[in-house]
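Homework help board

Subject: predicted structure for assignment chain

Our instructor gave us this sequence and asked us to write out the predicted structure in token form, then describe one feature. I got the tokens but I'm not sure how to describe them. Can anyone check?
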Amino acid sequence: MRLRTTSAAVAGTSALLLLTGCGAADMTKQASPFANAQGAKTVTLSVQSWVGAQANVGVAQYLLEHELGYRVDTVQVDEVPAWDALSQGRVDAILEDWGHPDQEKRYVDDKKTIAPGGDLGVTGHIGWYVPTYFAKQHPDVTDWKNLDKYADRMRTPESGGKGQLLDGSPSYVTNDKALVNNLKLDYQVVFAGSEAAQITQMKQFAKEKKPFLTYWYSPQWLFEKVPMTEVKLPAYKEGCDADAAKVACAYPHTPLQKYLNADFAKTGGKAAAFLKNFKWTTEDQNEVSLMIANEGLTAQEAAKKWADRHASTWRAWLPS
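My token output:
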């Protein structure tokens, strides 16, 4: 899920793996044999484990298949390995990248094996959040300087006597351990292991009206079900997160980007043109994400419903 920068860190997959901002088993070696195949009217898309990424791929796949006549294969790959797979032509496109400057420099600027595919149209943001029901009771909790005051309320068996800061997968972009250390907070970062596991914990806390502090990101459908309020961290300034060990500032707001294999960008015909044109809003993505995560629809079922309602949006993506 976002600016997945320093660390290894945000749809033919199941709705259980879903859920958005970010990570999954490295399935790179299961890449489609059709990726970059000469003359094959097939496109292979990288799909990350969070539901927003599945929404992007679901809609792109549906339209590529039903409007442009392509076969679409999907491969689930973690964020950083996905860049390697894209460079090697194992996949043709990544539709939601949260910011990986090291990979961008290596593959886009230096090797020129990956080409920018343009803005997705969605702005991503990672932050620390508390449930809104707790923020209303204790408004000062939304300032990081007051978090230690509530550390004892945030303790769990996993946090070792400190307050718990709940993260998802270690593969997501996260500065949280450095932030806790550099801001000298009485908290312990605890990884749920996946977005789905993190969501399960957060929903259980909310059901019991317990306080919690969590790493989370937008856009994300869970805000509709568990309203959360962001904790203000020290303001983000350009370069404040350049040294991973010294980070003591908030996460930036990042326009999410698409990337294409450089050869595919040149020779991928209408499929490449369509993916470059693919650009939608946070509201569009959340509409599809909610159908997948909350209604139990497959990515393709949700994509069809969205496409039926929004023809005026997606027709602009089709190459002439």
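Reply (TA_rk): Your tokens look well-formed. For the description, you could write something like this. Confidence is low (pLDDT under 50) at residues 1-38. That's the kind of observation they're looking for.
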